[in-house]
Amino acid sequence: MSKTILIVDDSLSIRQLVKATLVSEGYGVIDACDGQDALNKLSGQRVNLIISDVNMPIMDGITFLRTLKSKPEHKFTPVVMLTTESQEAKKQEGQAAGARAWIVKPFQPVQLLAAVQKLVM
């Protein structure tokens, strides 16, 4: 059974790049353009992992993460933040909200896949 991953990013090109990387490894992918869109798409849906940007309109990644983790069905869903943010304070805020990994853009697909494989096991 293939694992399903949700990609949340306001950049279409990033979503396409991440999706192509994951699909090539056999993962199923759902994508959303911001935190609110992601929450709507997650309703009643099980995903094995979420990859989210931090800076997005409507609902940013940290707010999305806090909202997600407050829901019992997603409390243990691993989340990777994929972002241009590299400041330690932002990373700590992300970890406090429940992020399991932090990858800074531009990223290497192998780096992303390594994090994904580790977290969806």
From TrEMBL:
PROSITE patterns: RESPONSE_REGULATORY. Residues 4-120 form the Response regulatory domain. The modification 4-aspartylphosphate is found at residue 53. CDD domains: REC_CheY4-like. Pfam families: Response_reg. Keywords: Phosphoprotein. This is Response regulator.
